[in-house]
């Protein structure tokens, strides 16, 4: 109830007076509590997928735990979406170093175009993909060798007594051929128990019986063949080729098997020739007006994806998706909310600009504005703090005191330059201030070391206040993220060509705090 939660603040001073109630209100309005998300398992089920994860190479062999978790979960979902839509092309927006792109192409044989605005990222993705392919081929080679040895072990471990029985049976059949011809019928079950026959044989089936014995032996081989092929099916198809030719050709194959193997080989060769390079890193800056055909010359029906698309890029992705008929589905996980542009944040009118927030007409009509401080708060990770990964209070304190110094000594209240990750490189507060001033291109000779330390001592006792303030921001973070994500979802709900859209929690928020995906599929009739 809004009235109950409002009592967390003093009616006259509007100051926070009930922290517990404030925390309850924040939890009440968080995305996990509102009931608007679609469970990932339900989405995969609707797409005829399997939430158990794809079998094959594990991405943690090539990336850190966080990125591995993100890539494995998202790539499985994207593959299911692509299969559902019957398409093979993926456009990865803000692809960075190509972690998701390369995994989608190698694990799922999708043709992926990774687009990033940074040429250094694109070049890095090229190099990383080249190295990854070497590892991938080595992994496939290991897989082939393991499967080959397993099959040989199975063949070698067959009981010797089966061979002896078959040999004895053949001798008995040959020696008793004349007596068998004189019998009306003979029960073969007792003669060939290892083959499991229960049919009655007539005198005319002497030759057939010998053939049945051979067939029985071949059926065991065929069963083993099917088991091995079933295992091989979990690997990319080119992992099968050498193995099938080296192992199975040593035995006679039936015509049906030969035709099947030949067709499989042709398919593999055809795919190799047409998709020799399944991942293409490209450099381009994506805006709402971007024409994908100018970047991807062979654009066809595709899925557009983005793993942690920064700031306005997430919003622009959704606009391109709704406008471009070739894009049949979208899966976008945004981040860096503090970099979003807001239409109503400043009073200046910019009629031609496309804003990152708000997107939906409902919030536009209300002139809704978050503000940079709120958007900064939305980037905080409540779940990590809840499990003991505390906020970096000391670095936040350094940054806060630095701002006081800059305002009071230099008269600077706003700057386009950033301090960045200076704290981790600094040996002391004095070192931190001097490094930061140089980054901001301010004359550090204006402030002596003693003056810097005076500021530090002046505010040191308020560090606990700063920590408490930031903890309140952390508690409020999910509520602000809700507003941004629901704005994007509502924008999709307003479009006429969308068959389904929803918010899905993809990742473990402790591993990956920005864990929600905006997913949408177009009507199949749209073209």
From TrEMBL:
Domain (Methyltransferase): residue spans on this chain: 66-343
Pfam family, one: Methyltransf_32
InterPro entries for this protein: Methyltranfer_dom, METTL25, SAM-dependent_MTases_sf
Domain of life: Eukaryota
Protein name: MET25 protein
Gene3D superfamilies linked: Vaccinia Virus protein VP39
């Amino acid at each position: 109830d809004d009235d109950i939660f409002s009592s967390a603040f003093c009616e006259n001073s509007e100051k926070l007076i009930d922290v517990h109630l404030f925390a309850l209100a924040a939890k009440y309005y968080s995305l996990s509590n509102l009931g608007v998300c679609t469970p990932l398992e339900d989405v995969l089920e609707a797409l005829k997928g399997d939430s158990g994860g794809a079998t094959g190479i594990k991405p943690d062999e090539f990336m850190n735990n966080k990125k591995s978790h993100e890539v494995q979960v998202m790539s499985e979902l994207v593959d299911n979406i692509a299969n559902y839509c019957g398409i093979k092309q993926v456009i990865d927006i803000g692809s960075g170093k190509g972690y998701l792109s390369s995994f989608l192409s190698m694990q799922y044989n999708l043709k992926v175009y990774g687009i990033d605005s940074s040429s250094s990222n694109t070049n890095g993705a090229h190099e990383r993909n080249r190295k990854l392919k070497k590892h991938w081929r080595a992994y496939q080679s290991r897989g082939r060798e393991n499967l080959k040895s397993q099959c040989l072990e199975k063949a070698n471990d067959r009981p010797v007594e089966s061979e002896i029985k078959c040999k004895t049976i053949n001798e008995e059949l040959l020696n008793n051929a004349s007596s068998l011809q004189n019998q009306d019928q003979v029960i073969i079950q007792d003669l060939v128990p290892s083959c499991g026959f229960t049919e009655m044989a007539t005198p005319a089936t002497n030759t057939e019986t010998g053939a049945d014995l051979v067939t029985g032996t071949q059926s065991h081989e065929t069963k083993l063949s099917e088991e091995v092929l079933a295992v091989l099916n979990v690997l990319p198809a080119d992992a099968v080729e050498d193995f099938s030719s080296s192992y199975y050709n040593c035995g006679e194959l039936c015509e049906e098997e030969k035709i099947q193997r030949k067709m499989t080989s042709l398919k593999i060769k055809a795919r190799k020739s047409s998709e020799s390079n399944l991942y293409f890193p490209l450099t381009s800056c994506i805006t709402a007006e971007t024409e994908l055909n100018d970047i991807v010359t062979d654009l066809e029906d595709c899925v557009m994806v983005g793993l942690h698309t920064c700031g306005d890029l997430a919003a622009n992705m959704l606009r391109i998706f709704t406008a471009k008929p070739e894009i049949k589905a979208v899966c976008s996980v945004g981040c860096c909310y503090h970099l979003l542009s807001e239409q109503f944040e400043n009073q200046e009118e910019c009629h031609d600009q496309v804003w990152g927030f708000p997107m939906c007409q409902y919030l536009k009509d209300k002139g809704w504005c978050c503000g940079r401080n709120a958007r900064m708060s939305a980037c905080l990770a409540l779940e990590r703090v809840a499990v003991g990964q505390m906020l970096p209070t000391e670095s936040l304190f350094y940054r806060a005191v630095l701002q006081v110094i800059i305002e009071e000594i230099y008269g600077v209240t706003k700057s386009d330059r950033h301090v960045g990750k200076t704290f981790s490189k600094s040996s002391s507060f004095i070192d931190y201030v001097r490094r930061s001033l140089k980054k901001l291109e301010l004359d550090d000779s204006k402030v002596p070391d003693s003056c810097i330390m005076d500021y530090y001592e002046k505010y040191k006792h308020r560090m606990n206040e700063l920590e408490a303030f930031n903890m309140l921001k952390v508690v409020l973070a999910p509520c602000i993220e809700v507003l941004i994500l629901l704005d994007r979802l509502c924008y999709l709900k307003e479009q006429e060509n969308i068959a389904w859209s929803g918010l899905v929690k993809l990742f473990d928020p402790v591993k990956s705090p920005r864990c929600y995906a905006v997913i949408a599929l177009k009507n199949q009739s749209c073209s």
